[in-house]
UniProtKB/TrEMBL annotation:
This is Telomerase reverse transcriptase. It catalyses: DNA(n) + a 2'-deoxyribonucleoside 5'-triphosphate = DNA(n+1) + diphosphate. Its main location: mitochondrion. It comes from Trichoderma guizhouense. Gene3D superfamilies: 1.10.132.70, 1.10.357.90, 3.30.70.2630. Belongs to the reverse transcriptase family. Telomerase subfamily. The lineage of its organism: Eukaryota, Fungi, Dikarya, Ascomycota, Pezizomycotina.
Amino acid sequence: MPRGKKRKRDTKDASGNQNLASSKHHTPVKKDLLLQHYPVVSTLREHVLSSLPDTSKIRRKKIAALGSGVDASAIEKQLAHVLDSTLVGTSASTSTKSDSEEATWQQWLSFSQRGDESYVTISNGIAASIAKQSEIIDFVIWRLFTRERGPWPKHILCDGFRRNARDDQSARYTIPGTGIFSLYPNFHVKALREAPWPQLLALLGQAGERVMINLLSECSVFLKVDAGLDNYLQLTGIPLSELDATSLDHNSKPHICKPSDITIVRSRIFYAKPATTAKGLVQAGFKHIHALNRHPYSSEASRTDADSQKSIEIRQQNEAHTMKLMMYIFPRQFGLHNVFTSAIDANQTAQKFHDYTLREDEITKKMRATKGFPEKSLPKLPKRLRGSTRDLVQRLQVLHARCSYFELLRHYCPTFLDGAHRKKKQIGTSDSSTIPVPLPDRATQATESQSKRRTRRYTTDTSVLPEYKSVVELACPITCVSAFCQAALSKIIPDNFWGSEKNCHNKIVFLRKVDHFIKLRRFEMISLHEIAQDFKVTELAWLVPPACEGQKTSPTDIKRRYEIFHEFLYYVFDSLLIPLIRSNFYVTESNTHRFQVFYFRHDVWRLVAEPSMLSLREGMFEEVKLNEATRILDSRRLGFSQLRLLPKGTKLRPIMNLRRRQMKGSRWLGPSINSILKPIHAALKFETLTNPSKLGSTLFAVGDIYERLKSFKDSLMPNIQRNFYFAKLDVKAAFDTIPQSSVLNLMRSVPSQAQYIITKHAEVKPGERLGLTEGAGPAKPVRRWHSTAIPQNEPTSFLDRLESGMGSKKKNTVFVDSAAFQSHETRSLLALLSEHVGRNIVKIGKKYYRQKKGIPQGSVLSTFLCNYFYADLEAQHLGFLDGPDCLLLRLTDDFLLITLDKDKAIRFVETMHQGVPEYGVEVGHDKTLVNFDMCVEGESVRRLGSDGKFPYCGTFINCKTLEITKDHRPNKDIDISTSITVDFGRSPGQNFQRKVLNSFKYQSHLMFFDTEHNSVDTVLGSLRGAFSETALKMWAYLRCLSTSTRLSVNLIIGTIKKVVDIAFLILTSKWRKKRFEKYACEIRKGQVIATGYSAFLEVLSRRQAGYGEVIAWLKEETARLATTK
């Protein structure tokens, strides 16, 4: 029988079926992260096999079979593990051979000559391979430096290397004959010189040098970390933390942002200061620096002789002002910096896009004008902006000059101040406490009668404030704010900008977008693409080129029209609407209303905030003279803090902003105060991990309750009935009452090292998938940068630290290490801490103050300082609670005691209520709660009700069983819609699914679902509460969507199914059991499904109509599940 012809195996088949099967399994890191940046992602074994030449059949068989034999050595198993677990990312340009590879090979031959070594195996010739591997790494580093012109290439292998050593720099290693030296030790380079990489080079034979050079210089290698779940460490390539999805394509054109990529920086409307005169009087309208006030249009030319010199000068000035204003509106057409084509300089702004309030320097350079704005110096007006566009901009200038913003504000947003003004005007009396509040003085030479008409008088006496239960009651209704903004913009923007007078469709759409913008919640955004929807651009006559009127439009012409119209829309929202809001309203969130936004008129906010500011100046701060403040700020890196007030009930809570980057000079942003304090934060974090006993009963998060309470319960004898005594109390104004000298003295005893090495690394995680449906793409990767402190004499590499515990609680993460480090003496860190706490300079208005009492609340160190300070209080005054019968918990300043001894609970409450003056501790009776009867100083302490559920930090603890449940009690005064954030952009269905799933994830902490700690009934009750809250937020989310984006019934039903299915996977996941060995969730999937459907049915049945089909499906499924029990 003749033998059949042997099948010729493809090069990709050499790795065997087992490796091919494993490559088909895409982990989240590979699928949702690496494949978004690299066209080709494969295992190291697959990459090596595909890189070998077709003639290397023996080598291919050896590599494919490596590690599969029973008698494989330890080094072979190690190499096989690296080959199968390591991922290699390859760009499109390096996936095919090119002339550059041959040039690189010729450079290598001149760098080091080698012969054919195909006879070498993994068991011989290793000494030579080690030397060769080291030489290849040196060559790759040199090669990367020769390709880059900067100080050092943005490549992990070059991290820590420099071109030429300065006199003050000591080289740890120098690449011979290149002038390149190592300033910081690069542990990745060291790892690539060691096993199993030289063994891999030896196994590759003659082609090994080419493969290894290409791998190290052109590819990105990700080594599997033996800690956590599916974590990797990047060994080579451009750092993933600095890589964009399109940055690997070197042939791509200059990036142009699409409207969907451009978002309005809405955060600029918050916490604005009012425009005031030299006498401190509040002004309405736009600020004096706004482009419309800087470049007005004067109408005096029409009232003078047309041939007079004055008339000519006025016309020339008007021409220059109009041209400048057009540069503000259409910067892209003039070649100025814009959001569409210009790069964002992180040294000039901390926002996603620049603030274009002031362009004078840039425009002056463009115009090359001298004083007086001569006409010959004006730049050439682009053809598309000539004619009607220029006339409309002039009309905009005129309408702005005529608009009485204060009258509009008083009409659409009336307050009690307006009523008081009208009453006094009718009576005809005056008050010495009243002050004029004029509108801003236009540079349009307004007449005297206009100036008088814009002047208003309002009281500064806070006694005129009406009674209120909450400060937010004094805010203007959001509908009134929207009406004011719509009216003001309608007054100043000519109607012809939106089309013909007969067809007002575009104007209606614009006003609807303005209303939507103002009603957005705290963290909701709106893109230029969303704003531009529904406009009929073809009806805008001013966009039609003069030479193309009456002709059929071409695709190129339509594209150019949209380009100009998008510029105009961005200007209206970014440079008209946002400044209009900032100039007339103080916009803020509150401490109790989650994401709801409140708009206070500036005159009202000043009346409300001034008493609070006065009490802060007198109690917490002391004024510092301007010269002294300037001297202090110039002598240190720490800048000054800025204070704002946050509504909290009937009071205002002071909040300090220490994250804001401050200007260095007039153009560059320096680091924030919190950034400067990061070395101290890293050192304290190190001490927290190495010496946790110094922190006493500290909880760093609410979730820490679980482990502490579970351990306490497990330490008690089981099956014995006990009475637990609970006591909870809160320290009044903890951060504001801590004595500065005491906390600084205590912190001197915390550091255990004389010096700390501060290293940095990045963690990159795949973004959440945009939907639960198949084929939905992932969101942008999540990048986080971390600082870590290590002792000076610790020689371990970053990989060793990851595998020794640092990465044990991470999953689906790619770590990117940095070779650079900073060495900090402990005494210098303590000096910086003393400067920060003892001389915290705060700027309020135009004056500087020093915080003489308490610690800065917005500081990145405040929580650490508070925890160490109160831990010392526990050691000095609450030592009687040490023992197995007591569990003391403290989340910052919220104390909770659980004990078996009632006397200890009483003594604890009495000790704290007596106060501890040396620690600044004073406890409020209104925030003290116990589950037994007791009195303090003849006053009864508030006792828990009969339900037996003790509230603490958003949870309930059962007083008999110590079971933990979530506090799902609704707040009747707060709408559920204020606790959600709606994505109004693209893919509304996918965003909806993601939000609903995340709503359940946030409530799925394992302390509520551990059946080892809680009973099954309690776990099912917590599960029902989580599903009910998820259903309520889902309903609120759907209600916030517009009618045009109403989601289908099938999508809603599919979302409910997915949430219930994924809920079971989350609660019973192996990852949870891996992180917490004692965790168990012994509930069946059928119980989860039945509970979820029942909860969704209960919530939706009580809501408004519109979910009939969904409710019918839920009833059917609930009935079916009930019959199958």
